[in-house]
Each structure stands twice: as C-alpha cells, then as structure tokens.
Amino acid sequence: MIGSADAPLGRSLRYPADVPGSVDDRSVDTASVDTASVDIASADHTSVDLSGVSYEALVAEMIRRSGDDPEREGMLKTPERVRKSMEFLTSGYHMTPDDAIGDALFTESHQNMVLVRDIELYSLCEHHLLPFFGKAHVAYIPDGRIMGLSKAARIVDVFARRFQVQERLTEQIAQAVWDTIQPQGVAVVVEAYHLCMMMRGVQKQNSKTITSAMRGAFLEDHRTREEFLRLATDNSGPL
Q1: Are residues 21 and 114 in the same domain?
Q2: Catalytic hit among 128, 175, 182, 227
Q3: Which domain-ending residue is among 54, 89, 124?
Q4: N or C: which end of the chain has fewer CB within 10 A?
Q5: Catalytic site includes residue 220
Q6: Whole-number pLDDT of residue 236
Q7: Is residue 110 annotated as a catalytic residue, yes or no?
Q8: One of 80, 87, 175, 196 is an active-site residue; which one?
C-alpha cells in the first residue's frame, strides 16, 4: 500500500531553501503514515525525513515544482488518482508466482511445447518511471505437469507490475515458470515499446526492443528453440 488517502493532514513541512528546486515559502502537508523512513539528501548533505509525508502531498509538491497549481479545479484530485494508479501499477511487489498460479497445476503426460503468445504487458521503466508496453510470448515443455493457460499471463503481470527493465522482466518470467512447474524447458520472448525512448531522449517512435530468456530444452536443442521462435514471431494473422 502506498501512503494513506484517509490519513488526516498534520504538520506542515517546509523544505530548506538550500535544497535544489525548493521554494522556502511553499509548504507540504504531512500526515502520520506508517512507512519505512525515507531520507532525501539536501545540498549540504543533511537529510529530510519524508516518511511522514502522505503520498498525495508528495505528488502535490511535484506538481508545484513542475510549474502548475495542484489546487486548481482540474488537479484537485490528481494526487489521490496518482496514488491509486501507482498502487495498481506496482501491485506486483505484493504478489508471487505461487499466488498467480494457485492450485492450477495438473498432472498431464503431454510432453510437447505449450506456447501462450501475444500476452499484453504494461510496465514502468525504473530509470524514468515512464511506461513501456508490448507483448510477451511464454512457452514451456511439460515434464508431467501443466498449468492453467491463463496462469502464464498472470505470471507476466506479477513481474510487469513493478519498476522494471525489460531484460530483468524477461528473465524473471522465465525463472518463475522454471521454478514453479519444473518443466523440461522454458522460453520467453518480450517485445516492447519504451516511452522513455519515444517521448523524450532520442525520441525514436518506431524502435522496438526484443529480449529473450531460455531454460532447459530450449537452450540445449536448437531445433526446439527455432520452433519456438518461429511460432512466437509468426505474423500470419488471426486464425
């Protein structure tokens, strides 16, 4: 849980004038929030404890420092909306692959590839907190057990709904399937567009990043790997 929407506003925290970007005549409402202590270093290497500041108050201050007024009509509820949005977008921190799969593991003798492709994913780049989005293709070769088909998508969400880099996201999905159902092999490909490259920085609108992670049979047998890559990247259209 991020902050507290219902916590009463308490004392007013004034940022010291020597903190870069601070304005000494602006104050931030704070509330008593039960969170870990967060210290922000100032220019003179002292720290400001923000653990008692509500999430909404921090967002309001960010809006002020960006040059807008959080108290104008269109933005009055923006801090609360941002808190709720971030709670959802980072909900993966409170989930595990076991939570996602539950009891949807079944004994089955099928020993050929199972591929769930084109799983939509949305995540936040940990470097700029901007979205990246795309699709994941998740395959495995069972070794006596299969999982419910929707569980591949749920495992993707467990790790996508965190601050991420695509490379780690791909590996985490593959490792979670590998550890959870102990198959003969796992293969994952993620294709994504990154807004940190599209709306800022190099501003390249058509660049797509593709990452892969392989385990077991997909690493050891090039024919199995090639079959997966062919099926995952086939663009022949809908059935």
Answers
A1: no
A2: 128
A3: 89
A4: C
A5: no
A6: 66
A7: no
A8: 196
Which residue is associated with the tokens 């070794």?
143
Is 6 within the bounds of a domain?
A: no
Q: Which two tokens stand for residue 110?
A: 């099928």
Which of 126, 167, 220, 226 is catalytic? The answer is 126
Summarize pLDDT for 54-79 with one digit per residue, the tens.
999 999 999 999 999 999 999 999 99
Are 66 and 173 in a shared domain? no
Q: Give the number of domains in the chain.
A: 2
Residue of 166, 171, 172, 191 marked active site: 166
Residue 196 is among the residues annotated as catalytic for this protein: yes
Please confirm, yes or no, whether 128 is among the known catalytic residues: yes
Claim to verify: residue 105 and residue 82 sit in the same structural domain: no
72 token code pair: 């104008």
Domain containing 156 equals: 98-233
Pair of tokens at residue 95 = 């989930």
| Set 125, 164, 184, 191: catalytic member | 125
Model confidence pTM above 0.85:
no
Please tell me whether residues 120 and 40 are part of one structural domain: no
Q: In the annotation, is 182 catalytic?
A: no
Residues 107 and 31 in one domain: no
CB atoms under 10 Å from CB of 173, counted, come to 27
Band (pLDDT 50/70/90 cuts) for residue 151 is: very high
Look-up: residue for tokens 């590839």?
Answer: 113
Burial of 205 per CB tally in 10 Å (0-12, 13-18, 19+) = exposed
Same domain, 73 and 102: no
In DSSP terms, 40 is beta-bridged to: 48
Q: Catalytic: which of 120, 127, 167, 220?
A: 127
Show which of 89, 117, 144 is a domain's final residue.
Answer: 89
Length of the chain, please?
Answer: 239
- Same domain flag for 50 and 165: no
